[in-house]
DNA sequence: ATCTAGTGGTCGG
DNA sequence: ACCACTAGAT
């Protein structure tokens, strides 16, 4: 809920997406549910032998049960707060991408690199509690499409991801991201790649590999999702006539409309398909029970009194957290200009309070060992995060920031890896014969790029393509197209580490819930989707690696990476922090992706409704107000709020950044039809407070 | 020297 | 899920 509040603070309506049932395809890779269940049992047995039987067993068991309940709990809170959400019939990844395609959300907030394979257009990763994140635009990833190869690029990317190892299919021995990249580049089609692999016997390819490969691909393409508009199950991508879904059990079995609706609403367990029963007041009850004995029992028995006090203390804190993102205009009064506070340490923001989840870590042993390795593709994303250094390359930033050029100064010590990573793909490319032709010079790394681009494009090397792209390209595009932005991010999920819970059996590893934000249909705001996945036992797939690298490439190209600082946005934040000292520095220029999204939404709302600002008080006096609010949540000080005007006038960094308060929409986020933004809407903070 | 595979940690009082 | 790091194979 902390994240939900944060999004709202930025004027972004979050749309949470929860994971549903496990996919048969996934089962293959990881091990079937049954196997898992068996494994769990074995583990339990081992623990038993070891000596702590009951404990081990208990934990395991808990893990199993908890998941559905927790998700339900969160859902109940979302309902109260009128936050849109949906429980996917199967994977949240596919559901998120579907929502994005339908324009129901403007971006996806998640750490899962698979989203790009599914075809996510705008991904916000590495988002922290304050909303700082890295934005990855799919377009930047493969610009090749323009060349009339539409579709192909996506296919290649998907093929590479599958070859490198994904959730649905393990890679052939010793084939990782780099190798997969080379293979696809060179041979183009999966069929050829496989033939070549078999040809030179270096790797041994299972007999069924091609078939499995195709199944994995079909799963990425045609997995079932729930359409909130139609209120029914649909395919992420509608299969063509040549595809017979009845012969593809691996994409997940069909789900009846009525059941799907109940699952989507969170009323039915997506795995067991049984109604979820909510125990009466779970959370509170526990507390009260705990306390009750305390009072009733003579203290003498054992516990030191201090323990009780400790508990008592906590409560207040818990109450505070929830409000951290709330903006209380009333309190903010403009009057007290407060001394500037430096945001550096943001002490208590976090926590948020989800009191409920005890978070147990069942870290144990068992699941870990089974874990799949991380997907190589995720690599691509990985670097982005800390590679601030990359920023120098990407000036892009969109709207902003010229300021930023020098990364180094503030930037931290560049990591050694950074360069390597960036060039990772390049190197590969260079090695290829073709490439060498064009570029005899070994690495041109960044300097030489622009001119060559066309050649490169034809070549198809992704990396080069990225480079070749004009930096401002994205800008042009973006401006005009405000139609949609999506943010997605993952929410701190309720779940804890894995649980193996399935009723049936094995707990697959956790299936986690994911959140998505959705753009409110109303002119007002869009929502980001959040995916909440906790740490799962499942390992990262190779895809992740791709992300890292690509991200680099992307960066230069157009994608803006906003990570901590590199990106304009993020950088902005950091910059803001460092410069916060000087007020003048106004970092207005830099907006984080979330801020931009919020601003856009706001803008949209305004134009649509034409109403004078919906949110009353803030826009003008905001600045002072903001500071005033500090006491409540200092953390945000550094970040200027999104302001339309700011956005409009990006160039002028002049310091005034007022912050606007986000529009919190109160009441309806979801409806599409929208509500016209009602004339006077003020933030109703009280709602969010836990009072 | 490059890449793949495996392992541990992740938060927050 | 990711990420950082390390060891092993090429
Ligand atoms: Mn995934």
TrEMBL record:
<dbReference type="InterPro" id="IPR044752">
    <property type="entry name" value="PIN-like_EXO1"/>
</dbReference>
<dbReference type="GO" id="GO:0005634">
    <property type="term" value="C:nucleus"/>
</dbReference>
<dbReference type="GO" id="GO:0035312">
    <property type="term" value="F:5'-3' DNA exonuclease activity"/>
</dbReference>
<feature type="compositionally biased region" description="Polar residues">
    <location>
        <begin position="616"/>
        <end position="627"/>
    </location>
</feature>
<dbReference type="InterPro" id="IPR029060">
    <property type="entry name" value="PIN-like_dom_sf"/>
</dbReference>
<feature type="region of interest" description="Disordered">
    <location>
        <begin position="481"/>
        <end position="507"/>
    </location>
</feature>
<keyword id="KW-0378">Hydrolase</keyword>
<dbReference type="Pfam" id="PF00867">
    <property type="entry name" value="XPG_I"/>
</dbReference>
<feature type="domain" description="XPG-I">
    <location>
        <begin position="79"/>
        <end position="149"/>
    </location>
</feature>
<keyword id="KW-0479">Metal-binding</keyword>
<keyword id="KW-0267">Excision nuclease</keyword>
<feature type="region of interest" description="Disordered">
    <location>
        <begin position="351"/>
        <end position="372"/>
    </location>
</feature>
<dbReference type="GO" id="GO:0017108">
    <property type="term" value="F:5'-flap endonuclease activity"/>
</dbReference>
<keyword id="KW-0540">Nuclease</keyword>
<feature type="region of interest" description="Disordered">
    <location>
        <begin position="650"/>
        <end position="691"/>
    </location>
</feature>
<dbReference type="InterPro" id="IPR006084">
    <property type="entry name" value="XPG/Rad2"/>
</dbReference>
<dbReference type="InterPro" id="IPR006086">
    <property type="entry name" value="XPG-I_dom"/>
</dbReference>
<dbReference type="InterPro" id="IPR037315">
    <property type="entry name" value="EXO1_H3TH"/>
</dbReference>
<dbReference type="InterPro" id="IPR006085">
    <property type="entry name" value="XPG_DNA_repair_N"/>
</dbReference>
<keyword id="KW-0269">Exonuclease</keyword>
<dbReference type="GO" id="GO:0006281">
    <property type="term" value="P:DNA repair"/>
</dbReference>
<comment type="similarity">
    <text>Belongs to the XPG/RAD2 endonuclease family. EXO1 subfamily.</text>
</comment>
<keyword id="KW-0227">DNA damage</keyword>
<feature type="region of interest" description="Disordered">
    <location>
        <begin position="603"/>
        <end position="627"/>
    </location>
</feature>
<keyword id="KW-0460">Magnesium</keyword>
<dbReference type="InterPro" id="IPR019974">
    <property type="entry name" value="XPG_CS"/>
</dbReference>
<keyword id="KW-0234">DNA repair</keyword>
<dbReference type="InterPro" id="IPR008918">
    <property type="entry name" value="HhH2"/>
</dbReference>
<keyword id="KW-0238">DNA-binding</keyword>
<dbReference type="GO" id="GO:0003677">
    <property type="term" value="F:DNA binding"/>
</dbReference>
<keyword id="KW-0539">Nucleus</keyword>
<protein>
    <recommendedName>
        <fullName>XPG-I domain-containing protein</fullName>
    </recommendedName>
</protein>
<dbReference type="InterPro" id="IPR036279">
    <property type="entry name" value="5-3_exonuclease_C_sf"/>
</dbReference>
<dbReference type="Pfam" id="PF00752">
    <property type="entry name" value="XPG_N"/>
</dbReference>
<dbReference type="GO" id="GO:0046872">
    <property type="term" value="F:metal ion binding"/>
</dbReference>
